[in-house]
Amino acid sequence: MKKIIATNNAPAAIGPYSQAVEANGTLYISGQIPVNPATGKIEKFNIADQTEQVFANIKAILAEAGYGFENVVKTTVFIADIKQFAAMNEVYKKYYPTESPARSTVAVKALPLDALVEIETVAVK
User: pTM of the full predicted structure?
Assistant: First the structure.
């Protein structure tokens, strides 16, 4: 059985998808870009600040579903410029200081709204 997860503390979906779906004790969070949910806009222009906003969005969705970063088992990072990997990674490791989840990082040509980073997340209780 699946449950749709939605919160006003993260950006609304900009297409035909859910912020997150929970099924059988696993939470699947759609890729989050650095949109401020209060304004609906990207307000940060460097990769570190955008990554912080992405994690704020992920945190809000995790909390809405009753999960935390300690429950995250897999992430996929999409980055618009692989040369900015180190700066993104500095922020990323603040959220997973120990027992980091499995991760893939993929350089992409472009992201929605010209974001510099997008992160999708899977968490398990």
Answer: 0.97
